[in-house]
Amino acid sequence: MAARESLQEDAWKKLGRLAFRIHSLAVAGIMATLFVMLKNHFFEYQYVWQHSNLAMPAKYIFSCFWEGQEGSFLLWTFWHVVLGNILIRYAGNWEAPVMTVFSLVQIFLASMLLGIYFGSVHIGSNPFLLMRQLPENIGLPWTKLTDYLQKIPLFQDGRGLNPLLQNYWMTIHPPTLFLGFASTLVPFAYAIAGLWKGKLSEWQKPALPWTFFGIMILGTGILMGGAWAYEALTFGGFWAWDPVENASLVPWLTFVGAGHVMLVNKNRNISLFSTFFLTIITFILVLYSTFLTRSGILGNSSVHAFTDLGMSGQLMLYLLFFVWMSVCLILINKRLRIGYTILSACLLLIGIFTGAKTASVFSFALLSILALGTGYHYYFPKEEKEEALWSREFWMFIGAIVLGIASFQIILYTSIPVLNKIIQVNFIHHPVEVIHHKMQQWFNYNGLANFASGKLAPEKNAIGFYNKWQSVFAFVVSFLVAFGQYLKYKDTPFREFSKKLIWPFFVSLVLAILIGYGIPRTGSLQFFLNELLLFSCLFAILANLDYFRRIGKWKIGKSGASIAHIGFGLILLGCLISNAEKEIISQNSGMDLKYIDKELSNSNNILLTQGDTLKMGSYYLTFTGRKKEGIYIYFNVEYLKKQEDGKYVSSFVLKPFVQLNDRMGNVAEPATKHFAYKDIYTHVKFAELDVPDDINGQDYTIPVAKTMARFDTAYSSNGMLILDSLTTHFSHKKYGLPDSVPAVQANLRAIDINKKTYAAQPVFAIIDNKVHSVDDTIKALGLKLNFWNVDPAKGKISIYLSERKSNKRDFIVMEAMIFPWINVLWIGCLVMITGTILAIRDRLKKLKKSVVTD
Q: With left for phi above 0 and alpha for psi between -120 and 50, is residue 315 left, alpha or beta?
């Protein structure tokens, strides 16, 4: 009501402020309550039992809070509350319409936490639900016990935190990322307010600082996620193009585009529709990313995704509502709005009552695109005169388009699970088979995916696929970042412009050639793209450094944009060098690792047996043993250097470890040695985790049963066994057996880590209807073999394998790689964040001055 500018505007505003502040206190109270429950381990509550346990260190209470869907929605709500209260204080005349949009979003987020049922319809998930109140537990006998927490062992401790999240980055990465997601709402709310109130340009002035604040925070959250992945995950790097990673990156790319197009509109009053579109689509993409990661649709394709809690329909409604609202306002014409709304409602009802929900949503998306195009064509001003080729606005607009295309490529490929549903519903059973055939041809031709049996399949090498596409976009963007600031609005004399860029251009070109000269040429497309990107990154860094010197006069406060661009160039350069020149130095030369696990490759891994010293790259390695501390098993790997006199000198020790978790599975985590110019990154790929500490004082270890068919393998700590054959034709007398006794001899071959071969021939016999085994030993390896069963139906035998204590040695299979100059990436992160903060501060000063002047 306050947004209508009625005579009672102040009264309605006061009421709205009061309501929002009461809501803020309620959110703070809910969060405090949940923290108290987690800290005190109130396992009678499902959320506490699901996400914490007694063994978990107290420092991970925060991680427990936002591990689950309910906690993360609450965190998102909290940041909206914080931003909303700031806007109430500083939004001025925009307060009422902007806070109306904020309140709408809060309604949807609050609904995600309701946890109520209307028949079979489930609305939200309540974090304060008791274990006895879970639908699947209602009616079970134990729910009638008042002291079930004491009597039932299952409830005396919680399920625990996901091992992957037990890292200090997970206490700061999620809140930063969600603040970034929440910050996209502020420019969106201003854009909606501008459409609503008919102020199509005025909204951008207050929205601009918020936009760059959001760019900084969301970018920082994404970079923190990369640092967490690099430190805690074992996929070997800081970015794997995981679907959830992509879902956070895409809104940031469009957000960057929106911020720069706002700058164009602020100075030239052009590209108005693009400003609205990029601002709105950023928030819509955040909602779409939320749907992807929380609906369960990415459960099989991402290690980050949440499972479906039955809220996928609610999440989709959340997304569709704000798409409808945005398109409605862009249409401007009242009749078109009514028509679009009626058609949208019809599609929704058709989907609900016919069950064709996917087809209905797909049709709504097409209708919205058509309506969006109509709004742009009829109601937004078009530039009568094209921008000059060498004008800042022209190239900033081109940059925004490139970011938009890059975003589309990423989100399209990430949305394959969604596309599968659309295809299966709309095309698999379609009577016109030619549609299916044509789509198959298109997808296969473009290398997007394999279209088989009506289902899109991701590329086998997804990282390479994304890198190939995104290298092109990164080259264009970094090249634009290099020369964009040297351009003036309206037009720039080419000679004046090019003269300033001569030395950064040629120095970058020479450096790129010199660096590239030392890289082995593969002749591949990716090598060529990497060379181009290397040049453009260097050009972006040097050109902006020169701008900082030449135009900024080394004044940090006035050069935030240049500093941020230098940081962006350093990030791209660090990503390029550390990934393109990543070197896997763990290469196995002993026993074939595929005998241990078919997934292990000799070209990427090395087998380390305790006490041995092996060469790896420029180092010598020795595995000195393991140490168990609580739920962690640390493997001590010492890196040595060989001196001229042949002696080994210790350089450093790395301790990659495995975190034990019976409920969720054991998790290996890497250890990294940081140098100024490189990182040595290691993690354990295979280890026997159940090695007993004591063997009850016997000469041999406790026998371990091994079941084998012909040519199968079994493993000891210092080698492997292969069953070559079984025979009944052998000398019984050699084993002290009568010739009439039915007996089988197993011909086994043992291979040690140095590929030396040994033979063993244990015997299985039946004497007086009792099993009789004649053991055999391999003294060199300290192995005792007891042949105790034959299964003729399956063609398998069973052998007990024991090892002499003095011969038994621990071993691990480890992967090690070098990331060269990865610190360039981390330095770039700090520089870009610093530059963006300086740019925001400068914008706020200018905004304050303009308000005072007005």
A: alpha
pTM for the full model?
0.84
Q: Under a CB-based contact definition with an 8 Å cutoff, are residues 251 and 223 in contact?
A: no
**C-alpha distance across the termini of the chain, in Å:** 27
Structure tokens belonging to residue 29: 């109270």
Q: Could you tell me the two tokens for 740?
A: 């009439």
Three-state DSSP string of 283-309 = HHHHHHHHHHHHCCCCCCCCCCCCCCC
Of 130, 132, 87, the residue nearest 105 (C-alpha): 87
Instruction: Give the Cα separation of 165 and 160 in Å (integer).
Output: 11
Contact by Cβ (8 Å): 651, 619: yes
Round to whole Å and give the CA distance between 813 and 62: 34
What is the C-alpha separation between 612 and 175, in angstroms, rounded? 46
Q: H-helix or E-strand containing 666?
A: none
Measured CA to CA, the distance from residue 722 to residue 759 in angstroms comes to 10
Tracing tokens 């090249």 back to the chain, one arrives at 479
Rounded Cα distance between 765 and 777, Å, is: 18
**How confident is the model at residue 629, as a pLDDT?**
86
Q: CA 67 to CA 64: how far, in whole Å?
A: 5
pLDDT for the residue numbered 698: 55
Burial 87-126 (b: 16+ CB within 10 A, else e): bbeebeebbbbbbbbbbebbebbbbbbebeeeeeebbbbb
- Dihedral sign of CA atoms 494, 495, 501, 505 in order: positive
Q: What is the 8-class DSSP label of residue 804?
A: B
The residue whose two tokens read 């625990």 is 160
Q: How far apart are CA 62 and CA 64, in angstroms?
A: 5
Would you give the distance in Å from CA 633 to the centre of its chain? 26
Residue 502's Cβ-side half-sphere holds a number of Cα atoms within 13 Å equal to 6
Tokens of 201: 């340009």
What is d(CA 68, CA 116) in angstroms, rounded to the nearest whole number? 18
Provide DSSP, 354-384. HS-HHHHHHHHHHHHHHHHHHHHHHHS---S
Q: Which parts of 414-548 are beta strand (E)?
A: 450-452, 455-457
Q: What are phi and psi of 441, to 5 degrees?
A: -60, -45
Strand partners, 758: 750
Asked whether 593 and 607 are in contact (CB, 8 A), the reply is: yes
Q: What pLDDT shows up at residue 346?
A: 93
User: Is residue 485 within 8 Å of 559, Cβ to Cβ?
Assistant: no
Name the nearest CA neighbour of 404 among 473, 475, 327, 481.
473
Rg (the chain; Cα; Å):
32
- Give CA–CA dist 775/739, Å, rounded: 18
Helices H, strands E: what count in the chain? Answer: 22, 25
How far apart are alpha carbons 406 and 572 in whole angstroms? 15
| pLDDT at site 450 | 43
| Contact of 96 with 16, CB cutoff 8 Å | yes
Long-range contacts of 517-522 (CB under 8 A, 24+ apart): 519/580, 519/581
- Residue 164 backbone zone (phi > 0: left; psi -120 to 50: alpha; other: beta): alpha
Element of type H or E holding 42: none
Q: Which helix (H) or strand (E) holds 768?
A: none
d(CA 621, CA 608): 8
Distance CA 536, CA 476 (A): 8
Sign of CA dihedral 609, 611, 613, 617: positive
pLDDT of residue 5: 56
- The angle formed by the CA atoms of residues 229, 311 and 105, to the nearest 5 degrees, is 85
Helix (H, G, I), strand (E, B) or coil at 745: strand
Rounded Cα distance, 448 and 505, in Å: 35
Distance separating alpha carbons of residues 340 and 716, to the nearest angstrom? 71
Low-confidence stretches of the chain (pLDDT < 70) are 1-9, 119-120, 235, 298-311, 384, 421-461, 518-524, 690-698, 805-808, 847, 849-854
